[in-house]
Task: inverse folding
C-alpha cells in the first residue's frame, strides 16, 4: 500500500510540474537570502570583534554561507529537472539521478535543522564572549599608546554612543578601572597622588565616566565627573537622576542586538526547512507520477504518484533489513578470508 | 529633405519597435528612480527641518516627485504604443495621438533638464537656510523646558555626533552663547554671579562645549570645560590640540552632506534626460516609418523613417508661420464685427 497516493492525469501532472518549478525558484531565492544573512552576520561579528576579545566563534555564519550555497545549487538543479519533466526524452536523462538527489535533499534538510538549532543555542556562547571581551575593553580603554590596543578607546566610545549603553553591567564599572592614561595625569599633584595611593593597586580611580556615556536626551548638560557627589552640582541627586547618562549596560545592549539577529535568522531557516520539505514532497510525487504511467508511449494516460512506495512502517523495516544485510556481508567477507586462508 | 532619414524594411521595423519597447521599460524604472530620489530628499529635509528653522524650501523634492510620476506614466504609454506598433489594427488606434505625445515628450525632456540644473543651483539658498537655522538652534539649545524647543538640545547633540562637527563655523561659537539652562545654575554662587555680571546681556558664558563635540578618536579623555586655559589641564595646549573636539563646523558638514546628495540627484536626472531623449527619438522613427509605408496594405513593404519631416530651418519657419497665422486669426476675429457694421 503506497503512502498517500494521488491520481494524476496529464493536466494535473503539467500543473504540478509548473507549480513545483516556481516553488524551486522561490527556494533558490531563499537560499540566496540565507547566504546573504550569513555574510551580514559575519560582518557584524567582525565589526565588533574587538569588543569580544577577537575570540568570537564564526561557526554559525560560516555554516549559513555554506548552507545558502548548497541550497541554491540543489534547488536550481531541482528546478531544471521540473522544467524538463514534461518532455520524456529530457526527463529520461535525469531519471536515474533522482533517487540520490532526493536522499541528498533529505540529508540537507537535517543539516538545516541543525543550523537552525545552532542559531538559537550559540547565543549563550556569544553572551559569554561578550561579557569577557567587554571587561577587557574597559580595562584597555586608556591604552591609546599601546600598539594593538590603541583603537580600543574609539571603538568603545562609538559602541557606547551607538548602542546607548555605559559600562559592562552599568555605569559603575567605570569607577573600578583607571580609564585615564598615566600620560595625562600630573603625578606631582597632591590630589592625583592621594587617589593613586588610596587603593592597593595604585590606580587612579574616580567616580566619573567617559563622555560617550552621556545621554543627549537629558535636559541638562551632561554631568560626567563626581557622579556620586550630590553637592558638586547644583540641584542634582544621583539616586533619582535617570536621564543624565545611559543606565543600560553594554553587555545587555550588545547581547540583545546579537540575540535578536540570531533568532530572526533561526526562524528564517525554519521557514526554509518547510519550503524545502514541500519541494521534496512535490518532486517525489512528480517523479513517481511520471514513472507509473500505464502506457509509456501515450503522454495523456493516467498515473499514480505517492510519497513512499510502501507504508511508513514497512519502509522503515526495509531500511533496517538493508542495513543488517550490509553488516552481515561485511562479516561474511571477514569470515571468507580466514576460510580462504585455511 | 527629411532630417536624418533611414530606410526600413519589415525586419528592421520589428527590431526597432522591440528595442524601443525595451528602452521604454528601462525609462519606467528610471522614472521610479527619480520618484524615489525625490521622496528620499524630502524625508532627509524633514528629518532635520528643526535645524533649518522649519523654513526649508521643499520645492526641489516636490518637483522631483512630480517629474518621476509623469515620467512613469508617459513611458508606460510609450511602451504600450511600441508593443502595439507591429499590429496595424492596434496601431491605427494610437496613430492620431502620437504627434501630440511626441511634442509633449520634448517639452517634458526640457523640464527634466531644468530640474537637473536646479538640483545644482539650489545649494545656494540651502546655505543661507542652514546658517540661520543652526544659529537659532544653538541659541535654543538650553531651552529644554520651553514647549516647541524642548527637543532642540537632543537634535543638536545627535547631529553633532552624527556629522562629526561642533558649532556653526567652529567650536568657538559655543563660547558666545549661554548653553546651560538657568535652572541648573546656582545663582547664589559667587562664580556664577561673576560670569553673569561680566557681559552686557547677563548671560552665563564659558569657554566650554557640550559633550557631543567630543572626538572619540582622541587619545585622551575629552576636555570640554576651560578649553582655552592651558593650566587647567595637564600637558594641554589648546593651540596645538586638534583631536580633542571636532574641528569642522556643522554648517559646512551639513552643506557638504546635502550638497553631495543634490549633486548626485542632479547627475542621475541628467542621465534620465538622456535616456528619455533617446526613447523619444526612437519613437519618432517608429512613428514616421509606420506612417510612410510605400504600400499601406502590405506590411512587408519598405518605408522611410526620419527625425524631422523637413530640415531644422524649414521646421522652425513652419512653426513660426503657424504661430503668426494663429495670431492673425485672433486679430481678424476681433476686426470682423467692425467691417460688418460699416457695410
Result:
Amino acid at each position: 500500500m503506497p503512502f498517500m497516493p494521488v491520481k494524476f492525469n496529464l493536466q494535473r501532472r503539467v500543473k504540478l510540474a509548473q507549480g513545483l518549478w516556481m516553488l524551486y525558484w522561490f527556494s533558490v531565492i531563499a537560499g540566496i537570502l540565507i547566504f546573504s544573512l550569513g555574510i551580514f552576520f559575519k560582518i557584524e561579528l567582525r565589526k565588533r570583534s574587538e569588543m569580544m576579545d577577537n575570540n568570537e566563534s564564526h561557526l554559525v555564519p560560516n555554516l549559513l554561507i555554506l548552507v545558502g550555497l548548497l541550497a541554491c545549487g540543489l534547488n536550481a538543479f531541482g528546478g531544471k529537472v521540473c522544467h524538463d519533466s514534461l518532455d520524456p526524452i529530457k526527463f529520461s536523462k535525469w531519471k536515474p539521478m533522482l533517487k540520490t538527489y532526493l536522499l541528498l535533499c533529505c540529508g540537507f534538510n537535517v543539516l538545516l535543522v541543525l543550523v537552525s538549532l545552532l542559531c538559537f543555542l550559540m547565543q549563550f556562547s556569544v553572551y559569554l564572549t561578550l561579557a569577557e571581551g567587554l571587561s577587557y575593553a574597559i580595562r584597555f580603554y586608556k591604552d591609546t599608546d599601546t600598539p594593538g590596543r590603541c583603537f580600543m578607546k574609539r571603538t568603545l566610545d562609538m559602541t557606547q554612543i551607538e548602542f546607548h549603553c555605559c559600562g559592562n553591567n552599568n555605569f559603575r564599572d567605570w569607577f573600578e578601572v583607571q580609564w585615564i592614561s598615566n600620560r595625562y595625569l600630573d603625578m606631582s599633584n597632591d590630589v592625583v597622588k592621594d587617589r593613586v595611593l588610596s587603593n592597593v593597586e595604585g590606580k587612579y580611580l574616580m567616580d566619573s565616566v567617559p563622555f560617550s556615556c552621556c545621554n543627549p536626551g537629558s535636559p541638562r548638560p551632561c554631568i560626567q565627573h563626581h557622579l556620586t557627589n550630590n553637592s558638586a552640582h547644583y540641584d542634582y541627586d544621583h539616586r533619582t537622576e535617570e536621564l543624565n547618562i545611559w543606565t543600560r549596560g553594554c553587555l545587555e545592549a550588545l547581547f540583545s542586538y546579537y540575540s535578536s539577529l540570531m533568532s530572526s535568522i533561526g526562524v528564517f531557516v525554519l521557514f526554509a526547512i518547510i519550503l524545502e520539505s514541500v519541494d521534496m514532497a512535490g518532486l517525489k510525487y512528480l517523479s513517481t507520477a511520471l514513472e507509473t504511467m500505464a502506457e509509456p508511449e501515450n503522454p495523456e494516460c493516467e498515473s499514480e504518484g505517492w510519497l513512499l512506495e510502501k507504508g511508513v512502517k514497512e519502509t522503515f523495516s526495509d531500511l533496517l533489513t538493508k542495513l543488517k544485510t550490509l553488516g552481515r556481508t561485511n562479516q561474511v567477507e571477514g569470515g571468507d578470508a580466514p576460510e580462504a586462508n585455511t | 529633405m527629411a532630417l536624418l532619414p533611414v530606410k526600413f524594411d519589415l525586419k528592421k521595423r520589428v527590431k526597432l519597435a522591440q528595442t524601443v519597447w525595451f528602452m521604454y521599460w528601462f525609462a519606467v524604472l528610471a522614472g521610479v528612480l527619480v520618484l524615489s530620489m525625490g521622496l528620499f530628499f524630502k524625508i532627509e529635509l524633514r528629518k532635520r527641518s528643526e535645524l533649518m528653522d522649519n523654513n526649508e524650501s521643499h520645492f526641489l523634492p516636490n518637483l522631483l516627485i512630480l517629474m518621476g510620476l509623469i515620467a512613469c506614466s508617459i513611458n508606460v504609454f510609450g511602451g504600450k504604443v511600441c508593443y502595439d506598433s507591429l499590429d496595424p489594427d492596434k496601431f491605427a488606434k494610437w496613430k492620431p495621438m502620437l504627434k501630440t505625445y511626441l511634442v509633449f515628450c520634448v517639452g517634458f525632456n526640457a523640464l527634466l533638464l531644468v530640474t537637473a540644473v536646479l538640483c545644482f543651483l539650489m545649494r545656494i539658498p540651502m546655505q543661507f537656510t542652514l546658517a540661520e537655522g543652526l544659529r537659532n538652534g544653538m541659541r535654543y539649545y538650553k531651552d529644554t523646558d520651553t514647549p516647541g524647543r524642548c527637543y532642540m538640545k537632543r537634535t543638536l547633540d545627535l547631529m553633532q555626533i552624527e556629522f562629526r562637527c561642533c558649532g556653526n563655523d567652529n567650536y568657538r561659537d559655543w563660547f558666545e552663547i549661554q548653553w546651560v539652562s538657568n535652572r541648573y545654575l546656582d545663582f547664589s554662587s559667587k562664580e556664577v554671579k561673576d560670569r553673569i555680571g561680566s557681559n552686557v546681556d547677563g548671560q552665563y558664558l564659558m569657554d566650554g562645549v557640550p559633550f557631543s563635540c567630543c572626538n572619540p578618536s582622541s587619545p585622551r579623555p575629552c576636555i570640554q570645560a576651560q578649553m582655552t586655559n592651558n593650566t587647567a589641564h595637564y600637558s594641554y595646549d589648546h593651540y596645538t590640540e586638534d583631536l580633542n573636539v571636532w574641528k569642522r563646523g556643522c554648517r559646512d558638514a551639513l552643506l557638504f552632506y546635502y550638497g553631495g546628495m543634490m549633486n548626485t540627484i542632479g547627475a542621475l536626472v541628467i542621465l534620465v534626460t538622456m535616456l528619455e531623449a533617446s526613447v523619444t527619438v526612437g519613437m519618432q522613427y517608429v512613428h514616421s516609418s509606420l506612417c510612410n509605408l510605400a504600400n499601406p496594405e502590405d506590411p512587408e513593404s519598405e518605408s522611410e523613417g526620419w527625425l524631422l519631416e523637413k530640415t531644422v530651418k524649414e521646421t522652425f519657419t513652419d512653426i513660426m508661420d503657424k504661430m503668426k497665422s494663429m495670431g492673425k486669426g485672433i486679430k481678424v476675429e476681433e476686426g470682423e464685427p467692425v467691417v460688418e457694421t460699416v457695410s
